[in-house]
Design goal:
- By secondary structure, the chain is α/β, with parallel strands linked by helices.
- The chain has two domains: 166 residues, Rossmann fold; 135 residues, Orthogonal Bundle (N-(1-d-carboxylethyl)-l-norvaline Dehydrogenase, domain 2), CATH 1.10.1040.10.
- Helices cover 42% and strands 19% of the residues.
- It has ten helices and twelve strands.
- Strands 5-2-1-6-7-8-11-12 form an eight-stranded mixed sheet, sandwiched between helices. Strands 4-3-10-9 form a four-stranded mixed sheet, covered by helices on one side.
- Strand 9 and strand 10 form a beta hairpin.
- Helix 5 runs antiparallel to helix 6, helix 5 crosses helix 10 and helix 6 packs across helix 9.
- The longest helix has 29 residues.
- The termini are far apart.
- Bound molecules: NADP nicotinamide-adenine-dinucleotide phosphate (NAP).
- NADP nicotinamide-adenine-dinucleotide phosphate (NAP) binds next to helix 1 and strand 9.
Length: 315
């Protein structure tokens, strides 16, 4: 269904972290749609930091899914492993006419979200902008490429691009979404695991030995991506490492930052997706499998520790 950009629509943003906070602020400031923020903690405004300027953004925010009503669009902006915890929001927000745009890393957006979406359409999105929740009420958005979001080149993708018109978030509708989502996964599936395991920022990839290991991890993942239908270059692994080295050495990946903070992280959506796809295609990926085992051990211990802490707080 083609949607005219002039039609006012209702949009719920679930998860007000770096990515969701930035998207909610951009949509609110464009003023063309009605935005509801769905968060775990009360919030009535955000300071939005963009291009060196601070803008005060008042928000209508809910913390109780029971108060939410069906909307035209849901922007699901939790981390991938937090998706199940957003089920109560999706139950209240989704109807078959709703579309849920999944602003998450990984390649399995539809499989992850469709079972929770009550017949709503699921639109996978690749996120390229950098969003950082600097404080409970402050978010910074940085544009780092030619587009901030990529979606498939179909009717829902076009409707989403129309929805975002007038915001700083430029949407590319791609006829080869599969290749682009794998390209993004390749970068994530090497940068996140290694930086989280060694607890170092991007600077660690400047080491010759870590660079060589990263290339081997990537070559495994590239063969899996190709088997899955991604149209990748002969030297895709080398190109991915070149791209990784353009990231400033002091930047920390999200998995590194999550580990530093003792939080569980996106293991299954990244390395887990590479290994699961490899298994489907009968491809051996010993390095990625080893990374997966180690990351699961760390992330699941963090989750258990968090659960114990909340049980102690409730006692
Ligand atoms: N940040 C980036 O620059 C970037 C770039 C590209 C892709 N991505 C991807 O984008 C996705 C979102 O990342 P992010 O950096 O925005 O993560 P984030 O900063 O951790 O934000 C996630 C937000 O979701 C909230 N949340 C989790 N479960 C919830 C629930 N059940 N109900 C309501 N809110 C819930 C969290 O709330 P609390 O605050 O209460 O924990 C948090 O504010 C991830 O898949 C990430 O890999 C991020």
């Amino acid at each position: 269904m083609e949607v005219s950009p002039s039609v006012r629509q209702s949009v719920a943003v679930v998860g007000l972290g770096g990515i969701g906070g930035g998207a909610a602020a951009c949509l609110h400031l464009a003023g063309r749609h009605d935005i509801t923020a769905c968060a775990r903690r009360p919030l009535d405004r955000l300071t939005f930091e963009y291009e060196g300027r601070d803008t005060d953004v008042p928000l209508r925010a809910l913390t109780d899914p029971g108060q939410a009503a069906p909307v035209d669009w849901v922007l699901l902006c939790t981390k991938a492993h937090e998706t199940p915890s957003a089920a109560a929001w999706l139950t209240r927000l989704c109807r078959p006419r709703t579309r849920v745009v999944v602003f998450q890393n990984g390649i399995d957006h539809e499989a992850r979200v469709a079972p929770l979406a009550h017949g709503a359409g699921v639109v996978p999105a690749i996120v390229y902008y950098n969003g950082e929740r600097l404080a409970a009420d402050r978010v910074r958005l940085r544009r780092v490429g030619e587009h901030e979001l990529t979606v498939p080149d179909d009717a829902d993708g076009a409707a989403f691009a129309a929805l975002m018109q007038g915001t700083p978030l430029r949407v590319l509708c791609s006829p080869d979404f599969l290749t682009l989502k794998w390209r993004k996964l390749l970068l994530n599936a090497v940068a996140n695991p290694i930086s989280a395991l060694v607890l170092q920022r991007q600077i660690v990839f400047r080491r010759a030995d870590v660079h060589a290991l990263s290339l081997d991890v990537l070559k495994e993942a590239v063969s899996v991506a190709r088997a899955d239908g991604a149209q990748l270059a002969e030297d895709e692994a080398e190109r991915t490492m070149e791209k990784l080295l353009t990231i400033a050495p002091e930047i920390g990946t999200s998995m590194y930052l999550d580990r530093l903070a003792g939080r569980p992280f996106e293991v299954e959506a990244l390395t887990g997706a590479v290994v699961a796809t490899a298994e489907r295609h009968g491809i051996a990926t010993p390095l990625n499998r080893m990374l997966l085992t180690l990351l699961r051990a760390i992330s699941e211990a963090a989750e258990a520790e968090r659960d114990n802490a909340s049980a102690r707080a409730d006692a």
